[in-house]
Amino acid sequence: MSLPTPYIAHLTEDDYEHVYEPAEDSFILLDALELDADLLTSKKPTICVEIGSGSGIASTFLSNLLGTDNSLIISTDINVHACQATIRTGEANNTTLNPILCNLLSPIQNRLERQIDILLFNPPYVPTDLDELIQTQIGKDIGGSWAGGNDGMIVTNIVLDRLPDLLSTNGIMYLVTVIQNKPLQIIKNMESKGLICKEIIKRRAGRELLSVLRISRNTI
Ligand SMILES: C[S@@+](CC[C@H](N)C(=O)[O-])C[C@H]1O[C@@H](n2cnc3c(N)ncnc32)[C@H](O)[C@@H]1O
């Protein structure tokens, strides 16, 4: 199955002053979804969530893959400009997205307990010092797109620690990582929580060695 990359030409240089411009890490996430397209449609997911939607490219791709008749696509971002861009990207691609301006899943987390069928996260994964992480999370602007603190994993680990409480019985998470995040350690960590975790794509993009981990409750 070959799915079109969402249209993003409505986003301007000015938008990209504040919103993460889709790059190789965004595209590897789309490629992972495309690779699993038959699996994803066969599972008939109803509750789909993207944390940190940025431009909205991945939520739009997922929405176009699944259709909005049976699947609800919720996205979150701490950056108001990203939430606005996500709405515009949905509209430009004839789909409706539902961005929420919040930290990770904070206002909806309890309501989503064991309810998420598909969870996407291309997190701020770049290793930085703790101070940069804290300042960019407080600033809620473009810097929050990459600053990830120690091992680039501080924000990601908050989500991974809660993952067993978030995924539905058939739930699947797609997580973008770089080698500095120690993907093999993430796999072991997820297995220790009783989840199944596999690297499904790995690719070098300039200086970054990117991969997408697929994490699920059940064997796929
Ligand atoms: C690497 S960018 C990915 C953007 C988009 N998903 C993509 O793949 O192109 C990370 C995104 O996560 C958002 N983000 C960072 N910290 C967050 C937090 N605590 N809660 C929600 N979103 C966050 C950033 O604002 C940014 O839009």
UniProtKB/TrEMBL annotation:
Keywords: Methyltransferase, S-adenosyl-L-methionine, Transferase. The keyword Cell membrane does not apply. InterPro entries: DNA_methylase_N6_adenine_CS (IPR002052), Euk-Arch_PrmC-MTase (IPR052190), SAM-dependent_MTases_sf (IPR029063). Gene3D superfamilies: Vaccinia Virus protein VP39. Belongs to the eukaryotic/archaeal PrmC-related family. PANTHER family: METHYLTRANSFERASE N6AMT1. This is Methyltransferase small domain-containing protein. It comes from Kwoniella shivajii.
